[in-house]
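Reopening this ticket.

The earlier resolution said the output was attached, but the attachment link was broken on my side. Pasting everything inline this time so it's all in one place.
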Amino acid sequence: MKIVITGPATFECLSIEKPEPGMVYQLEDAAEGTGPQNRAFHALVQEYWRSGCHSYNVKSFSEFRNLIKRDLGAGFERFVYATIEIGRPMLHDAPTYADIPESVRKDPDLKDLCRGRLKSWTDYTKKERRETIDRLIAQMDDAGVRTKKYFDILEGMSEWRRAGRDGSEGQGV
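Inline output:
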């Protein structure tokens, strides 16, 4: 169901499905990621990890999930680097890797202290989530994931799309 709030305690339905009196609904901002996207992403990443079909050289699920977000998702939201000023280490933020001073990026000791901060999944927009999920599914298909659970997840996503309950209007979860 899709609605638009038109004023205090008033709304207009944008879908065929209408709210039922007496029922409780949880609203989600359509501009932000949705609950179904959240569940789909985490289920897909978990199944990809369990399948063993990936080629990531990692030891833990947490490390694997972070590499998926880095490689297939929105990546880093900013970078942290260190400098030595008056004999003391100082931490700095940079919006992009290119914004880290070249002297730090080329220093044999300091360059190893540069770190990217991954964008949190909760901060992804609905579009970023949809694009990440689409890239994840494509990579899983290319890697040969063919488990029953994988196909169950894809079927559940298809049902949501067909019903229009994810608000994507046929563009993927």
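Reporter confirms the inline version is readable. The longest strand covers residues 76-85. Strands lie at 3-7, 10-13, 76-85, 88-94, 115-118.
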